[in-house]
Description:
mainly alpha; 40% helix; flat
Amino acid sequence: MSKPPLRPGSDEEWEALLHQLRQLPPAQPRPFFYARVRARLAAHPARPAAWYGWLDSVRRPAYVALLGLLGLAMSGDGVVLPPAAPHPASPANRPLAH
């Protein structure tokens, strides 16, 4: 893809715009904003934690699921992969001599 040619003076236009934005006063919240937020939070009391309350603190459930699958795969209980068939020439498959 070809680059379009820069307009002459485009950097100066951006600098002028940024200079104008820096001159504006900082934004302020509307009057009594924080008082309204506190009143709304106080109006809704915290609900009691259920037996699954610890799940509310998990911020990324995909990581929890991934760790669970990794733990299952690494557990060695054979759920993920069935055991391999023994090799016919292994010493465990030779008949015992009497």
